[in-house]
């Protein structure tokens, strides 16, 4: 993905393009799975944890990424599709956590079915995770 495309992706979500934001966005685009803050720290050894965390939080607040609390021990972040509003229940979808490689995958084309909660329960977010083995680990 070209730098202009990355800049436009940030600007479309009203995020000021900075060098670090562009680098993190490029990394997210290139990954096939959701990423954790620890993975970003490992990749960007010259950056501090706070800068990376703030970048992810900005992306999340502006709807560029969504947070996934999977079956692993860390929160992960994945890019949202262009038409995503990160609202419940409109943009909830299935996530898959591989118990071997610990990658988390978004399946935005697989919606979580609608269901009725008991009275007085007011949902704000939805997170549906299935655990198992991804194709690479199952082979």
List the helices and strands and how they pair.
Blueprint: H1 3-12, H2 19-30, E1 35-36, H3 37-43, H4 49-61, E2 65-69, E3 75-79, E4 93-98, E5 104-111, E6 128-132, H5 135-138
Parallel strand pairs: 4-6
Antiparallel strand pairs: 1-3, 2-3, 4-5
Structural class label = alpha+beta
Report the strand count: 6
Proportion of strand residues: 15-25%
According to CATH, the fold-level topology is: Arc Repressor Mutant, subunit A
**Count of helix runs:** 5
Report how far the terminal alpha carbons are from each other: 30 Å
Give the total of domains.
1
Instruction: Trace the largest sheet across and list its strands.
Output: 1-3-2
Tell the overall outline.
globular
State the order of secondary-structure elements, H for helix, E for strand: HHEHHEEEEEH
Low-confidence region ranges? none
CATH superfamily: Winged helix-like DNA-binding domain superfamily/Winged helix DNA-binding domain
The largest sheet, given as strand count, sense and whether it forms a barrel, is: 3 strands, antiparallel
Q: Examine the secondary-structure arrangement and name the CATH architecture.
A: Orthogonal Bundle
Overall pLDDT? 90
The radius of gyration is 16 Å
Helix content: 25-40%
Specify the CATH class: Mainly Alpha
């Amino acid at each position: 993905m070209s730098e202009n495309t990355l800049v436009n992706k940030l600007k479309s979500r009203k995020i000021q393009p900075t060098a670090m934001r562009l680098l993190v966005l490029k990394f997210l685009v290139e990954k096939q799975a959701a990423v954790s803050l620890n993975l970003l720290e490992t990749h960007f050894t010259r950056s501090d944890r706070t800068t990376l965390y703030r970048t992810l939080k900005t992306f999340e607040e502006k709807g560029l990424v969504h947070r996934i609390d999977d079956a692993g021990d860390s929160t992960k972040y994945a890019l949202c599709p262009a038409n995503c509003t990160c609202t419940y229940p409109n943009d909830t979808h299935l996530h898959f956590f591989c118990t071997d490689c610990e990658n988390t995958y978004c399946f935005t084309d697989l919606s979580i079915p609608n269901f009725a909660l008991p009275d007085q329960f007011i949902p704000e977010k939805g997170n549906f995770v299935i655990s198992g083995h991804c194709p690479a680990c199952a082979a």
